[in-house]
Amino acid sequence: GRIYMLLKFEESKDMQLVRKIAKDIDLIGGKTYLVGGLVRDAILGVESKDIDLEIHCITPEQLEDILSKYGEVETMGSSFAVLKLKGVDIDFAMPRIERKTGSKHNDFNVCVAPFIGTYKASLRRDITVGAILYDLINEKLVDHFGGVEDIDNKLIKHVNKDTFIEDPLRVFRVCQFASRFGFSVATETKILCSDMDVSDISKERIYMELEKALSKSKKPSKFFCLLKEINKLKPFFNELEDLSEDDFNNLMDNLDNLKIKNIDSFSKMNLNT
Question: Rounded to two decimals, what is the model's pTM?
Answer without folding.
Answer: 0.87
